[in-house]
Amino acid sequence: MGSASTTSAQTCLTCSRPECVVCSESEDSVVLIQCDEGHPICQVCLDKYILSNVKKLRETDYLPAKAETAQISEDGATLAFLRGACSCPLRGHGCGAAPFGDRLIALNVSDLTFAEYSEGKALLPIARKVDQVVQEGSELALLMPNARMCARCHYGPVELAAGSCNDLTMHHGEVRAPGRAPDTHSPSEDAMDSGAIASSRFS
Ligand SMILES: [Zn+2]
Ligand SMILES: [Zn+2]
Ligand SMILES: [Zn+2]
Ligand SMILES: [Zn+2]
């Protein structure tokens, strides 16, 4: 992750003060975190910076598409932001340092901010997962526009083409593939007379 370290020798680049604007009584109590290129930021500013980044990230639409664009154009600063990583505030403005490591952030921000930070890092993977599910669903819909599946046992898809068997209740609970067990819910729960199903399956 790099060699980011803490020091109290410099002033915070963001608030330009050697002491914490919020809680510090003396210069000794301020802790400055440095990026790999040596740009200092104080704990208070880091905390606020992370919170505002996560807020921005939550308000960002189309995360997977934007991340892909950033990757293609090798825009590391944007990609790091979209991934929920916390970079030096000067990243993209002359600083090429790697994002701060999770451990460094955990040690220097509040528990609440760290929780926000962790949620921020999960946003892109979650958005990708959602996109994937939506895409798989629409691919299936394109392939089999008239297909229907049993919502309970997931038998199907069955195509509602002319002459084909389109009565899902006839297949209710069937084993579709090796290793795939039929579910155990009662066919009658699917609003069909179980006797009728039995006769259509076994006669
Ligand atoms: Zn500061
Ligand atoms: Zn403070
Ligand atoms: Zn930097
Ligand atoms: Zn079923």
UniProtKB/TrEMBL annotation:
UniProt name for this protein: RING-type domain-containing protein
Region of interest: Disordered: 174-203
Gene source species: Chrysochromulina tobinii
Composition skew (Basic and acidic residues), residue ranges: 174-188
